[in-house]
Amino acid sequence: MKVKAAVVYEQSGKFNIEELELSEPNDDEVLVRIVGTGICHTDLEARDGHMPIPPPPSVFGHEGAGIVEKVGSRVTKVKPDDHVVLTWDCCGVCKSCKSGMDPYCLNFFLHNFHGARPDGTTTLRKGDQVIHGSFFNQSSFSDFALANERNAVKVPKDVPLEILAPMGCGVQTGVGAVMNTFHPKPGSSIAIFGVGNVGLSAILGAVVCGCTTIIAVARRSEALKTAKSFGATHTINLTEVDPVEAIRDITGGGADFSLECAGNPKVLRQAVDALPRCGVCGLLGVVAPGTEVSLDMDLIMNGRTVRGIIEGDAVPDLFIPKLIDLYKQGRLPFDRMITFYPFDEINRAVEDMEKRRVIKPVLRQ
User: Fold this and answer.
1) d(CA 173, CA 234)
2) pLDDT averaged per 10 residues in sequence order, the chain, 365 residues
3) How would CATH label the architecture of 2-168+333-364?
4) Measured distance CA(44)–CA(50) in Å, rounded
5) Whole-number Å distance between alpha carbons of 194 and 219
6) Where do the structural domains in the chain lie, given as residue ranges?
7) Fold adopted by 174-309
8) In the chain, fewer beta carbons within 10 Å around the N or the C end?
9) Residue 237 burial by CB count (10 A; 0-12/13-18/19+): exposed, middle or buried?
């Protein structure tokens, strides 16, 4: 079928809105008419060649939300006219998947960054030219996308679909890191380094969990002001003070938990150093493969934990509906981060995000 998609033809190039041919769904796939797609820094990292993916031309997009148009013959999870949020894919059969740890699927790269289906077949073409798609097994920078039924999450119809798009990755990652990984007790303290979409989502998760000391750490005063409005009890501008000392002063020795959301080795070191004994630091920031960090081994030996976290340790079919319930109760106002753009203005949306004019751009069809 003919679809309208945003194609990147060269590394770090612009997005070109073009007509492509999308394959029919396989037996285990769903065809989704996209209503809204969030733009995530991972899309831009892939565009810029910082991820182990095939070279352009490519269609990215991995926070799609839409309406099921057609399903393959073996699909039982969703049906036409269902509302769905698209998230990452996994194999469903490896040791990690069978243990309920879907984000750590042993075949994660094959299912999300292969530029094609896991079996190597492609889904997008322009004439005779193959366009790499199946990004996060969806490539939702398009008006229609193919996904596997595994990474299509059915959602209720009483919440606007376009606001649910960031649930597929950014919101799920930030909230999940707090709720699923840390499980903080009410009254706990947490320091969040980097307060973009993921960091702000983590703040919202900390509020829901009853953390009473929520410290936002960033470089820009405007970002810290926003963090305060989302529930941060304290803010630290790391260009003005030593954040480690400031966190120790605020908490009386260190934050119970810390999150690195910036993808910066220096910041990760600060996030670890700001922990007390038995504190836990979670790493969320995306970095290029091979990036190294220097840590104080003696500090870690004294009961501290450094934990890598992918996609908020979530099982999307279970976690996304919980997040939607929290939103409907008024306890998770993640939609305050969103700025909407027409799909055709994707390049303006990307520029605004890169220049930090907006937090979470969402493309509407």
Assistant:
1) 22
2) 98 97 97 98 92 92 98 97 97 95 95 95 96 97 97 97 96 98 98 97 98 97 97 96 98 98 96 98 90 94 96 96 98 98 98 97 96
3) Alpha-Beta Complex (3.90)
4) 9
5) 8
6) 2-168+333-364, 174-309
7) Rossmann fold (3.40.50)
8) N
9) middle
